[in-house]
Every structure is written in C-alpha cells, then in structure tokens.
Specification:
By secondary structure, this protein is α/β, with parallel strands linked by helices. It has 2 domains: 180 residues, Rossmann fold (3-Layer(aba) Sandwich), CATH 3.40.50; 118 residues, CBS-domain, CATH 3.10.580.10. It contains 14 helices and 13 strands. Helix 5 links the parallel strand 3 and strand 4. The mean pLDDT is 88.
Amino acid sequence: MSTVSNIVPFKSGGHIIEAACRSLAVAADGINALEARFAERDFAATFLRLVGLVMNVRGRVIVTGIGKSGLVARKMTATLTSTGTPALFLHPADAGHGDLGMVTPADLVLMLSHSGESTELGPIIQYCKRFAIPLVGMTAQSGSTVAQAADLCILMPPVREACPNSLAPTTSTTVQMAFGDALAVSLMEMRGFSADDFHKFHPKGSLGTQLVKVRELMASGNDVPKVREDATLLEAMIEMTRGRLGGTAIVDNRRRLIGAFTDGDLRRSLTTGQDLSESIGRFMTVTPLSVGPDELASEALRRMHDSSIMLFFVCDEERLIGAVHMHDLLEAGVV
C-alpha cells in the first residue's frame, strides 16, 4: 500500500511538461544567483583564498557532507581527484567510528551543509579544531554552526527549491554541484592541467580512448613497411605484402618520407601492364599525407575519413617513425 496520501494524477501531458520546465527555470535562477555572487568583492576574495588554500595544501582535500549534500560531496571529490587535486570523501556517520584517522594536519577539510546545522558534522568540526586542521565551510546560512566554526566560509546564495513544497533539496544541491565544478575548473587552470594529464587519470573507457595519441597505436621500427626511392615496383610489392598495412612508405637516404605506394596504386599499375622492374618513383603518390606522433588518434581518424584514405605514415619533423591504419584505430575503440 502506498504511503503517499492524496495522490492527484496530472490532468494532461502538458501539465507534466510545464512542471518539468518550471523546475529547470528555478534551477537556472539558482545558477544565475551563484554566478552573480562572483561579482561581489567579498565572495570573489573568499573564493580566491579557497583556491590558494587548495593549491598549497600538502595533503588532500577531505570533502564531507550528509544527506543530499553528502552526495554532492562525493561527486565533488570525484571531480577534484580526476582533474589533478587529490581528494577523499569522508562520511560523517563513519567519522566518529574511526574514519577521522584518515584526516591529517596536512589536509584541508571542505564541509558541505546547506543549513549548516547537520548534527552529524559535529565530531568532524571538533576534530579539526583540536588538531588545527583547516576547515572550509560551504553553507547558505551565515549564522549557522558550520559557518561560525569554519576558518573560511563559502556563503552560498539563498535559492528557492524547485520542489513544489520547497522542502526537497533540488536547486540548492544543483548550486552546490555547480560551485564544485567551478572550483575544479579553476584549479585546473591554475595547475595548467592538460589533455595529457587528463588522459593519465582516464586511461580506460570511451573518454580515455578519445585522448589516446597516434604514437600509442602506430606500428614502428621494422613493422613499418618502407622502401628507398630507388626501389623497383616489385620490391615495393614485396614490402607491402610483408607489412600487411595496405601500403608502403618511400623514403630518401635520410629516412624522410617522400612518397607512398598503396593497394590502389598497385592495382592501377598492374592494370596498365607495367614492368615490375621499373622505379617505384613513377607510381608513388608524391608528398603523401602524414600525421604527427602526438596528434590525437581521434583527430587522425577524422582526417582519414575526410581524405578517404586508410593509412597514415607517422613523421617527426619529416622523418618516418611509424604507420597507423584505420583498422588499428577502430579496433582500439577510437571514434
């Protein structure tokens, strides 16, 4: 039996859409209110102090909160950690049962509480005060326990909850999460956190795959089919067969890429009855397209599609160092 009383069904689908849009509009108002806070001198100065504290912390950022704020704290922890700021989530309910041992004087505690009066946060506040651990409070109530106990208080803007009863945390948690993202992005800017750094922390999944570089997937060394510019058509065919990449590079005596000979070039030469002892220079594609080793594999794949080719030779300052085939990129999950 349902525990919800006085259930009133919506009269129409339009009413449902109206309610959803109203919720989004209220959330947008909350985000706008947070953005406006950054135009206030005191709030901006407090935010800059927070960024400075996090940049200089010798340990980790310990993020904590209870209820819905706790869920936001978990997300904030994950975002900070994956973008170069070591962070851990501390559950207030577990803090008083031994988990406070993870917090050290080298750490910084960031405490989320919309009301600022969550009793579960009491032991963490006491611990931070006892061991002089920096405590940053993030709350919407300036006179609350969290705000008064914090060494630095981030005073969030007062917002209207999207909940029709103004009870369920909706807009307030959206604003908390947006602030966490703003903090993480600001720290990324300060650290000069690059796509290379991001890939180190995200080596798996589709996101990691899109950050893979050509050098990680290319064939190199003896696996790269190549012949000298004075090779014959027959020698080029033999090298293509050995390399199994559907083509061979033509290089000069300094191993600079000067041409390419592919399956398509081979078919065209054979259909015209060419002598296999002729120089490969007559049949190769001059100044072929190439790719750099540090180019993203996803960008190389896009260029392959745009140019309708299957094979790129990889060059570092014109010198041939590898080869990458479209099939290698697709098998690696690059899209």
